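User: Quick sanity check before I run a bigger batch. Here is a single chain. Can you write out its predicted 3D structure?
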Amino acid sequence: MSILDLKGETSVLQDVELAELRDLSFNLHSLARAQNSINWQKSRLKWLQEGDSNSKKIHGVMSNRQRHNTINMVAISGVNIEGVQNIREAVFDHFSTHFKAERVRRPSIQGLHFRKLSYGQGRMLTRPFSLEEVKQAVWDCDGFKSPGPDGINFDFIKKNWDILKDDFMTFLTEFHRNGKLSKGINSTFIAMIPKVHSPQRLNDFCPISLVGCMYKVLAKVLANRLRFVIGSIVYDS
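Assistant: Done. Predicted structure follows.
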């Protein structure tokens, strides 16, 4: 795979070589999934044998945070709604009306002439990702924003970059080769953020989407590349 990647940077690969590269990448991805499954099973077995080493204090902090974030009751039209299932349905009905897509008449683009990128600009957009631009994308992200579904924010990633950089490069390299995202990498989780000290109604909450840091870094890297060529294809008017 490394030989074919290096050859693809200097010349155009033949159809046979492209097919071989895709097959090798697919096999490597399948083996990586199998290895991850084995490692996960080994970790569960080790946990059953040795137990959890987390201290009582850490468990107490996590339990207290969970109790603090739990929504026990909301007021809907003057009626107090309680119960997990009832609150879940009320939240879904309330915010589904806010984010429902409306069918509008959009202008047609038929007959319009668009600018095109040059060959060099196209090559710049599709070249393999480098460690320097990935690191720049990580450092461009605010380190103290809300963490993703995994509970990790970018400040943690920056402080442990020497350990995590290989994982980021592996993910971005696989995306560059296959043109596909790993399953669940762009999954988002809705979190309810209270806007007041003691929220009672659903209007007192602000929903935000938590997405994994890997997807954010990929989007940032692509946006940084587009920034250098967007002026060539977008008219000033």
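The chain has three domains: 1-51, 54-99, 117-237.

User: Great, the batch can go ahead then.
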